[in-house]
Each structure stands twice: as C-alpha cells, then as structure tokens.
Amino acid sequence: MRSKSVFDQQLQSVIVWGEPRRYLENNMRHFDSLAIMPSFDRDKLTIIGAGEYFKPFIQEGIECRCIERYGNIFKSMNLHPRVDDPFPKECDLTTVVEFMKLGGRYGYNTPNAC
Questions:
Q1: Are 13 and 50 in contact (CB under 8 A)?
Q2: pTM to 2 decimals?
Q3: 53-89 as b/e, with b when 16 or more CB fall inside 10 Å?
Q4: What confidence tier does 89 reach under pLDDT thresholds 50, 70, 90?
Q5: Is 16 strand, coil or helix?
Q6: DSSP-H helix ranges across 6-112
Q7: Which residue of 17, 46, 53, 80 has the fewest CB atoms within a 10 Å radius of its CB?
Q8: 25-61 pLDDT, tens per residue?
Q9: Phi and psi at residue 100, to the nearest 5°
Q10: Bridge partners, residue 12, by sequence
Q11: Residue ranges covered by each domain of the chain
C-alpha cells in the first residue's frame, strides 16, 4: 500500500474470463493476497482493490477499471449500516493490470512486472 490512505485511492476492479482467467489463476502467487469477489458466472474471476488510478484496459477476456474513489463508496455504505464493507482488501491492482497487458491477446508471456 502506498502512503495515501485507502480512502483517498480508487476502487479498482479486474475481471478476467476464458484463457486470461486461467493465465491469471496460474500466476496469482506473484501478487499479494487478492480480494476475490464471488460471482454467479463461474467462468469470470473478479478481483478488487483500492490503489492508484490506472487508465481502463479492456480487451477480449480482460476488463480492468478504476471505478470511483474508495472513500466515496465507503461513505455511501455507511448510510446503510446493515451492509458490511464489501471491499476489505487494500491491494493495489495496478501491477495485476500491467501483468495482464503484457500478456497480449494470445500466447501470454511471463512479465518482469511481478
């Protein structure tokens, strides 16, 4: 985690499916513990974190976005006290995004980013 408070950072999401999902699952050991969100779609893997803003990256099987400032989402959650904080991990997903970008559309390479 960088010096900023988690509340000053962006809520990041990375969704992968198909071959990119298998690729990421096989290489998760390169990253700190990731917050994996449950999904009704068994083929999709969604991970979230709160970190630095990165430019959205979308290609076949990969969707990486910074959604909103984490603090804004946390404040709206506090308006509904029965709802638990759904984003407990303070994991910066920027390195995951860079890792998936380096993979390319086919024939994934092992990046130096990890």
A1: no
A2: 0.76
A3: ebeeeeeebbbbbbeebbbebeeeeeeeeeeeeebee
A4: low
A5: strand
A6: 19-26, 70-78, 94-103
A7: 80
A8: 888 888 877 788 877 788 899 998 888 899 999 998 9
A9: -70, -35
A10: 49, 66
A11: 6-103
